Amino acid sequence: MANKADKVKARLPRGLVDRHAADIRATDKMLAAIREVYERYGFDPVETPMIEYTDALGKFLPDQDRPNEGVFSLQDDDEQWLSLRYDLTAPLARHVAENFNEIQLPYRTYRAGYVFRNEKPGPGRFRQFMQFDADTVGAPSVAADAEMCMMMADVMEALGIKRGDYIVRVNNRKVLDGVMQAIGVTDEGQKLTILRALDKFDKFGLDGVVQLLSVKGRTDESGDHTKGAGLNDAQIMRVINTLGWGEPGSGASSKASDSLTVANLQDRLAEYGVSTEGADELATINSLVRASGYDERRIRIDPSVVRGLEYYTGPVFEVELTAEIPNEKGEIVRFGSVGGGGRYDGLVSRFRGQPVPATGFSIGVSRLMTALKNLGKLGESDVLAPVLVTVMDGDMEAMGKYQDFTQKLRAAGIRAEMYQGNWKKFGNQLKYADRRGAPLAIIQGADERANSEVQIKDLIEGKRLSEEIESNEEWRSSRPAQVTVKEAELVKTVKRMLEQQAADRAREA
């Protein structure tokens, strides 16, 4: 026995979770639905390792002010710095650059995997989580961005999220850059504060954003104060007029049609003497998605969308769940964004020294799965618990029979296991079967073995009948949901009984 001093305390590191069968199967089911959409769009899978040279990740870590901040790193025996990947996009850029001459452009690929953030964990904020990305590298046209938006919408509906319960919102970093130029802001820190304020439009409304843009800042109901971006009234009006948000204090927070929004962006940016390229690209995206049958309930042009400040170079988009969804406590919450992306023409170029256009998006698998679970869209796992072959005798002949039954069931495609615990207390075997949710139990004692027979006990039907039968005498005389068949009939009978259980479940559903 180990000395107490030698015992290691079993503890899970903060920001990490253990995953159990139900969650793993639900995730697999969700990933399969997403994968089917990606494949339908002509994307192929690729896999990159979880560890990259740290300089390959570089400064292109979304929403990070300093290079390599937030990554888990170590040195190898060559004193080279390695890091766990922060996202799936930087490794893809390295892969494309390293294999550029062999890759067929445009390179259309998808991949799922865990990413790691060396950040302070908190509610809903983990140090390891899964993403599922799709990217097109080598396509300069915004038609590739429009396709990403349509694919995001199709993914949501493939997962059972109905139209009206999600929205894909689209903006362009060039529009935001034009706004900064129009109001004469060049300081990167002030730009960041302004963009963060614009990103709060859906949360705080127009008046709240105006306060965040101002010199005074915003104080919420609890008394917490957020420092303002320091813009004067004229600058604030230029921002609001360009983005088409109406007048402060008017309550005009409803969005105009996308065509009007784009036309306003083009007119205002031209009026202020800055580039309209971003607005023109939004006009093209708007035209392409409408021509393909995606209306404003599915994809919207929204100038408030702000994503990774150094990462993206053109169109940016995110998919948001708009349905009222209960959280784990039963409280109705707005889940918000469950995925997003955009054009990142500079990422592959870091390695190549030449322009390489790219666009893509990433789905936050864990966050989306939580939302689907709370919406009731994942349902019960369709993987049945195994049929349990019980053990009545421990001699070699009997054990050989039990193992043979188990293997015959498995060979027929039926999940099965032979009881591996202390077989001498038969009641414990049935308790184990009940805890496992086993649909059937296979029983063969000495008498049945002498007659080449087995008993098959329908545990689900037996449990139902036991709740209806009141007396022990009635129980003994009825022998509920239990049949005796010849060994040769075992597999066929098990299949029939499982099919009957499946029919009962379908009827009850």
TrEMBL record:
It is found in: Cytoplasm. Gene3D superfamilies: Anticodon-binding domain, Bira Bifunctional Protein, Domain 2. It catalyses: tRNA(His) + L-histidine + ATP = L-histidyl-tRNA(His) + AMP + diphosphate + H(+). The keyword Aminoacyl-tRNA synthetase applies. The keyword Metal-binding does not apply. GO terms for molecular function: ligase activity. Pfam families: HGTP_anticodon, tRNA-synt_His. It is an enzyme of class 6 (ligase). Belongs to the class-II aminoacyl-tRNA synthetase family. Homodimer. NCBIfam families: hisS. This is Histidine--tRNA ligase. It comes from Phyllobacterium phragmitis.
